[in-house]
Amino acid sequence: MLRVAVPNKGSLSEAATEMLVEAGYKQRRTTKDLTLTDAANEVEFYYLRPRDIAVYVGEGTLDVGISGRDLVLDSHADADVVMGLGFGSSTFRFAGRPGVADSVKDLAGKRIATSYAGVLQDHLAENGVDAAVVRLDGAVESAVQLGVADVIADVVETGTTLRQAGLEVFGEPILQSEAVLIKRNGVENPANGLQQLVRRLEGVLIARNYVMMDYDIRAEDVDAATAVAPGLESPTVSPLHRQGWVAVRVMVKRAEAQRLMDQLWEVGARAILTTDIHACRI
């Protein structure tokens, strides 16, 4: 069976479980369950700390896992990213009191507190900056006020917590992160079910990001409508009982659907509607 590591808690856990359910896999009913076997799909799921998942996968103990890109890089585990999963987006940035620094180059000789020492050390080395890294497990934003560090490097979402601590972000982002599926470095197919898992997750992403659009239009205007919404390959066109009219079906990006409906109306489309896609294979 394919052995898959899933976050057991934290911001990635619920979204990862939801995505796997949408992909057709069984998931645990209670957070007390540490493992689950989905015999029908020949997959075993292991629920682990997100920070540990890359280590288990990198060592080959488990075949693949879901974790954050930042956690994978921070672990220095022997793991490769297979695909991004479209959730868990975050930005890793420097922050400090106003005027303390403008860029990473200004941090030479300073103390930097972080929960992601591996990512920070790599970034400092890439920029040729010699600074002291203070590793903390949490509440990094308090490090400056308590005198433990001069600046911090942490995940920033809204920045509200930083402002409450009297800090502001500076410089370019260190890392843009998201949830990713990972496998052991150098292993193409760690188990037979990997390609099926990837296809299913890709199907979920497409279903979330696309809708099916249907409309009626005069046959003579199909080319103009197709130029507006060509679809992934080409639209499906079917004759209607009404002479000279056809029905068109096409996949379009969800974020662009309203704009495309307006444009299709302008070229003569009528009875335009969109429906959600629950599952697909492309």
Automatic annotation (TrEMBL):
Molecular function terms from GO: glycosyltransferase activity
Subcellular location: Cytoplasm
Protein activity control: Feedback inhibited by histidine.
Gene: hisG
The keyword Signal belongs to this UniProt entry's keyword annotation: no
Main location: cytoplasm
EC number: 2.4.2.17
Similarity comment: Belongs to the ATP phosphoribosyltransferase family. Long subfamily.
Its job: Catalyzes the condensation of ATP and 5-phosphoribose 1-diphosphate to form N'-(5'-phosphoribosyl)-ATP (PR-ATP). Has a crucial role in the pathway because the rate of histidine biosynthesis seems to be controlled primarily by regulation of HisG enzymatic activity.
CDD domains noted in UniProt: PBP2_HisGL1 (cd13591)
Keywords: Amino-acid biosynthesis, ATP-binding, Cytoplasm, Glycosyltransferase, Histidine biosynthesis, Magnesium, Metal-binding, Nucleotide-binding, Transferase
InterPro entries listed in its UniProt record: ATP-PRT_HisG_long, ATP_PRibTrfase_cat, ATP_PRibTrfase_CS, ATP_PRibTrfase_HisG, HisG_C, N-reg_PII-like_a/b, N-reg_PII/ATP_PRibTrfase_C
Catalysis performed (reactions): 1-(5-phospho-beta-D-ribosyl)-ATP + diphosphate = 5-phospho-alpha-D-ribose 1-diphosphate + ATP
Originating species: Kribbella pratensis
Cofactor: Mg(2+)
Cross-referenced PROSITE patterns: ATP_P_PHORIBOSYLTR
Record carries keyword Phosphoprotein: no
Domain Histidine biosynthesis HisG C-terminal as annotated: residue spans: 207-278
Protein name per Swiss-Prot or TrEMBL: ATP phosphoribosyltransferase
Uppermost EC category: transferase
Domain ATP phosphoribosyltransferase catalytic: 49-203
Pathway assigned to this chain's UniProt record: Amino-acid biosynthesis; L-histidine biosynthesis; L-histidine from 5-phospho-alpha-D-ribose 1-diphosphate: step 1/9
One matching Pfam family: HisG
